[in-house]
Amino acid sequence: MGQIYIAITGTSHYFGASFLKPGMVVQLIKDPGNPYDEEAIQAVIPPLGKIGYVTNSTHTVPKGCRSAGRIYDSFEQQVYGVIRFIVKDLAIVELMEGIASLDIFLQTEHQSFPWK
Questions:
Q1: CB 54 within 8 A of CB 95
Q2: Is-above-0.85 flag for pTM?
Q3: CA triplet 33, 35, 36: central angle to 5 degrees?
């Protein structure tokens, strides 16, 4: 697969982007029932839940990133990625090839979340 980057948008509709940090693991899950986008991919951080969506509009996909539509058929139901950069309210994520699941709880137990 090589280095593939996507961007997560819509964070302001969930928890915001202020707690996101480079190195955090994100689970990307297809959302085939989404009424607005048949190629929608949710961005999830367990145990929090949905934090946004993979960008899929020509107006929101940053240069150097792929849209949800471009990666949708490259994985079954879910794929993982690592946040590499935060740009305003967008998280730039590098997809991780071959990772089936991760122990997310160990990674997040020392994170500081704004609602605690």
A1: no
A2: no
A3: 125
